[in-house]
Amino acid sequence: MATLRDLRRRDFLRLASLAGLGLAIPLFRYSLGDSSDPDKVQMSAYALGTMITIRVERITDLISAQVAVNSAFQEIRRLESLFTRFYAMSQVRQLNVIGHIESPQRELVDVLSQSLHYSEKTEGAFDVTVKPALDLFENRRAGAFPPTDASFDAAKNLIDYEKVSVSAGAVSFAKPGMGITLDCLGKGYILDRAAAILRARGIDSALIDGGGTLVAVGSRSDGSPWRIGIMNPTNPNESVGTIHLENGAVATSGDYENYFTPDLRYYHIIDPRTASSPLYSHSATVVAHSASEADPLALALMVKPPSEALSFIDQFAGSECLIITRNSGLLRSSGFGMT
């Protein structure tokens, strides 16, 4: 996915090291418009493991627009602190450690309920409980890599969204050793909330770029849709096409985003059935009404065989997809418009 980000490697490493310490990172880049673009405001900040950029157009009051964007970033950071599996005080971290929490935050109940809904709708291709398998990759420096078959089997035995109980009073796992990650749907949920804040503050033209997930509020200042480039996963300098987006979201999952071996045999997406990485496609892009829907559907399409992709996406009204397979095939649903 072509994005608005421009973060140098040394900056990323510096920010990542701060994030690992659990520090708040109030790092923003402002672009407050100029003589040629007086009605635009753009702000970027490191959050959700990437550089988030919010661009607002068609503004009538500069200060009000800045306040709206700042409020959106405050909500992003607040929800990130609730959903992260890395901060010791987050309820997700506590749940993963002890397998049970009382009085979960309302937002955690909401995003977990949505996660279980999409786990069911995707027949388990998207599963919020893949953390034990993800740990095999993320902790690869602690032991031999790749993991043994026995390790995969042990992790697979702990992946089962049906073993998660969610209510307003408590969240719990049925099996010791289970764990969740909200890296996927949680991100979409957060970006949707940021968009809702912009709308509530009178913004009707904005694009939130969340590094692989984008949310469009209205159209551009001239009334035209936002133009989003779809990156060629085998050549980051090329685009396979451009889509037009207005009042919706687009998400791309791919094997090139965060991989653990140069041959892309192991990367950050997990097939719950095998506890390993799926090897069908290089990328899956989904256009949907919301990022909360686009994110889990894009991940599920990476897990499913490409032959099932088009019939699968047809089950979700208003959602369309583009699949780039590992044999260089390109599949797209009938309503996926691309130029």
Task: Outline the structure in words.
Among the domains are: about 90-175, ApbE-like superfamily (T-fold), CATH 1.10.3980.10; about 225-339, ApbE-like domains (T-fold, Roll), CATH 3.10.520. Helix 2 (about 60-85) runs antiparallel to helix 7 (about 185-200) and helix 4 crosses helix 8. It has nine helices and 14 strands. By secondary structure, the protein is an alpha+beta fold. It has a nine-stranded antiparallel β-sheet, with helices on one face. The chain has a three-stranded antiparallel β-sheet with strand order 4-6-5, with helices on one face. Strands 9-10 form a two-stranded antiparallel ribbon. Strand 5 (about 165) and strand 6 form a beta hairpin.
Topology:
Blueprint lengths: L8 H12 L7 E4 L9 E7 L2 E7 L5 H22 L7 H8 L1 E3 L3 H16 L9 H8 L10 H8 L7 E3 L3 E4 L11 H16 L4 E5 L3 E6 L7 E7 L2 E11 L2 E7 L26 E8 L2 H13 L2 H8 L6 E6 L4 E3 L7
Antiparallel strand pairs: 1-2, 2-3, 3-7, 4-6, 5-6, 7-8, 8-11, 9-10, 11-12, 12-13, 13-14
Helix pairs in contact: 2-7, 4-8, 7-8
CATH domain class of the domain at 225-339: Alpha Beta
CATH superfamily of the domain at 225-339, please? ApbE-like domains
Q: State the end-to-end distance.
A: 15 Å
Looking across the biggest beta sheet, what order are the strands in? 1-2-3-7-8-11-12-13-14
Based on CA atoms alone, the radius of gyration comes out at: 20 Å
* Structural class by secondary-structure content: alpha+beta
CATH topology of the domain at 225-339: T-fold
In DSSP terms (H or I, runs of 4 or more residues), the helix count works out at 9
Helix content class? 25-40%
Q: What's the total number of strands?
A: 14
